[in-house]
Amino acid sequence: MDRSLYIAMSGAKQTLYAQTTNANNLANSQTTGFKSDLEQMRSMPVFGEGYPTRVYAMTERPGVDFTPGAIQTTGGDLDVAIKGDGFFAVQAADGKEAYTRAGDLKLTPEGLLQTGTGLPVMGQGGPISIPPAQKMSIGSDGTISIVPLGGNANATVVVDQIKMVKADRQNVEKLTDGLFHVKDQGQPLAADPNVNLIQGALEGSNVNALQAMVDMIELAKNFELQTKVMKNANDNSGASAKLMQMA
Q1: 189, containing H or E segment
Q2: Which residue among 27, 77, 79, 116 has its CA within the 20 to 30 Å range from the CA of 41?
Q3: pLDDT averaged per 10 residues in sequence order, the chain, 247 residues
Q4: Helix, strand, coil: what percent of the chain each, to 5?
Q5: Domain boundaries defined on the chain
């Protein structure tokens, strides 16, 4: 009886893990530049003394869906979106360089250019700092130009250039901070001049909210089925015990 109970128990546990991943995707269906996490299940044998007569379910996150989200025109001077493949380089909370597709930028009162979540945007020599200006523009190659306060409206000054990179998807991983990091704490990626951006636009999340809702219902039904199997295993165990008492 323990075989069916063990299989159902491990399946129910892993279904909850899969539901967590799916719920996180659904919660970020409106998050700028979000890339949905993939998940899959497979059965694994339990090895030990003797033959592997037990199996358990295991949920895996095989990777991330890198499909680009829809580009939405906003007209904002600080809204930028990557055109095609590529990432913006930012400074993560631990001080190391990380990568994101979120281009909802903002300026702090001190002139520091940050993402919408408050992460410094990296330039050619570190975090980008912009002096007071009456006008600012961002070129398709990430070049930031300003018209200084009190200056001639036609006299622009180049301040810095947003660092944009291309990454081999096998060499980067998405961590719990939602950013992409080079695996095994490797060296930061070099800027790629072939990556271009669009000013006045944002890339939306690539999560299909309708599909995520369907998956949530399916996972809930799977969990219910597995709990029923556990109850049946318990009922059968009780019935077997009564038969043994009668004998």
Answers
A1: none
A2: 27
A3: 71 86 94 89 69 66 86 94 95 95 95 95 94 91 91 86 93 92 89 95 95 94 88 76 70
A4: 25, 30, 45
A5: 2-65+207-246, 71-203
- Give residue 240's pLDDT: 73
Please state the pTM of the whole predicted model. 0.81
Whole-number Å distance between alpha carbons of 137 and 11: 53
Looking from the CA of 39 toward its CB, the CA atoms found within 13 Å total 21
The closest alpha carbon to 217, from 12, 23, 10, 57, belongs to 23
- Spatial separation of the C-alpha atoms in residues 198 and 164, rounded to whole Å: 13
Angle at 220 between CA 217 and CA 226, to 5 degrees: 145
CA–CA separation, 130 and 140 (whole Å): 18
In the chain the beta strands, taken as DSSP E runs, fall at 40-45, 55-60, 71-73, 80-83, 87-91, 97-100, 106-107, 113-114, 133-138, 143-148, 157-161, 164-165, 172-174, 180-182, 196-199, 201-203
**Pairs from 50-56 (Cβ < 8 Å, separation ≥ 24):** 53/3, 54/3, 54/6, 54/7, 55/7, 56/6, 56/7, 56/10
Amino acid at site 92: A
Amino acid of residue 115: T
Between CA 29 and CA 22 the distance in angstroms is 11
Region of residue 95 (phi > 0: left; psi between -120 and 50: alpha; otherwise: beta): left
What would the two tokens of residue 57 be? 């379910």
Q: Could you please report the per-residue DSSP string of 113-160?
A: EE-TTSPBBB-SSSB-B---EEEEEE-TT-EEEEEETTS-TT--EEEE
